[in-house]
Here is the input.
Amino acid sequence: MEDCIFCKIVKNEIPSIKIYEDDKVFAFADINPILEGHTLIIPKNHAADIWEITPEDLTAIHIASKKIASAIQKALNPDGIALLQLNGRGVNQVVMHYHLHLVPHIKGGADLPITNWEIIPGDMEVIQKTAGKIAGCL
Here is the structure.
């Protein structure tokens, strides 16, 4: 896609701080990191979101995430790592090119709001009805 910033990064038209690359994916340091070590993994083929990405590219992203998470563990010794992936403007996807965030948490560092929420029991009738709708579409 011509105007996609991540496609331009893959084509080396825009500079990035490369962390990893193979034939299907490209990973680079987020220039607006949530915490130290925040890394983005993108498919080289443009896909806006989970609904557009091919199964092969999705698999490649997650195989690469395992390698990169292991490298982050060795390099930074985090006490945890969050893998976050947003789809659509309604959940604040800003760049419309599928990407997976790897955000390590260093002990004593700031909390990640995405990993800290209050557990409130749901309405089991509603949960069951919704699950049935989803399962029925499979």
The beta strands are 18-21, 25-29, 39-43, 80-84, 100-105.
